[in-house]
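Need the bound structure for manganese (II) ion, inputs here:
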Amino acid sequence: MRSKVVTIDRHIIDQERLHPGASGRFSALLYDIALAAKLISREVNMAGLIDVLGRTGEINVHGEAVEKLDVFAQEAIYKAMDHAGHLCCMVSEECDHIISIPDQFELGPYVLLFDPLDGSSNINVNVSIGTIFSVHQRITPRGRPGTIKDCLQKGSRQLAAGYIVYGSSTMLVYTTGIDQGVHGFTLDPSIGEFLLSHRDIRIPDPPAKIYSVNEAYYARWSKNQQRLVDHFRGLNGEGGGGYKSRYIGSLVSDFHRTLLQGGIFMYPPDSRAPGGKLRILYEAAPLAMVCKAAGGRASDGSRDILDIEPEGLHDRTPLFLGSASLVDLAEDYLAGRVERPEEEADS
Ligand code: AHG
Ligand code: MN
Ligand code: MN
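Answer from helper R.:
Posting the output first, comments after.
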C-alpha cells in the first residue's frame, strides 16, 4: 500500500493546525523558502547546460571567489522573500551588511538568515551543494526596518532552521523547534512539488562509524584534536578504529549524510583558522538546531552551538556536529579528559 502523498504545503498546514495561535504568516514564510529552493534547484540542475558556471570575478565579504550560482541563489532567495511581508530584514553570507526590505513592501515579524549556496567550490565539478536557512523572530519594535539586534540572536532562539541539498535529488529538510521533529521532503520535478519522504528523522545513535573532517589540515590541529582523529583511525594506541572517513567538502552534504546515517562532522579550529571557518548565523546554528531536533548534538568543542551569542553577522565557530555519543567523545578528547595511552601504560 503506497504511503499517502503529502506535499510540503500540506505538511506546513498540518503543523500550523497543531499551534492554534499560529497566524499562518510563518507557514507562508516556509512556502516561500520552498519556492526559492525550487528555483535554485532548477538552475543548479541546468548549470552545466546554460552559462551559470564559472566565477563572476567578484570576491565576497570573506575574500572568497563568488561563483555565478552563488549570485543566482542569492537573488532567487531575495526576490522570493522581499515582498511578502514576512520579514523585517535578511542576512546572507554573500552580503557584508543586513539586507533591508524595499520601502514599498510591508515589514514582517521575522528575520531570515541564509547561506544561499553552500559548497560553492563543488559547483563546477557537479558535486552536491546546498542552501542553509535560519528564521528568528524580530526583537526590536515592529513597524521599523529590522536592525542588527534582530539578527545577532543565539541559535536556541531560532523559530525554524533547515537546508536544501541539491544532490542526486533535491531535498528540503527543516525543523520548527528542537521538540518539533525534523522532516525531509524530496522534490518531484515532474510536478514541481516537495513530497514528504523522510518523516521525523532521528539521527542514528549508536551511529554508523563515520567521521568527516578535512584531514589535510591534521598538522595544523591541536594535539588533542589529532588524538581524537587518531582514535577514529585506530592509530597511536588511541583505541577506536574501524571508522570510515567521508568528506565531500560541502557542509550541507556532509551533514545530510551524518543526519541520515549517524557519525560526526568536524570543522576544528586550526593554526590558520583559530576560530574555525564555518559561520555561526547561517551555517552552524541552523544545522545545530536540525541536528538537536533529530536527537544529535552540536558543539564548538566545549559549548553547545545553540548557546553561542553571536557578536557579528559573519562570526565563525569551530563545529562538531552529529550523533550525541561522538560529539561527547570529541569534547572529552578536546578537554584532555581521555587518558593518553602512555598514561594508561604507566598507571
Ligand atoms: P561556502 O561554499 O558557503 O563558502 O561553504 C563552504 C564551506 C562548507 O560548505 C564546507 O564544509 C567547508 O567550506 C569546506 O572547507 P574546506 O575546503 O576548508 O575543507
Ligand atoms: Mn557555506
Ligand atoms: Mn555559501
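Comments: The chain has two domains: 8-198, 210-346. The pocket of manganese (II) ion (ligand 3) is lined by residues 93, 115, 117-118, 120 (CB under 6 Å).
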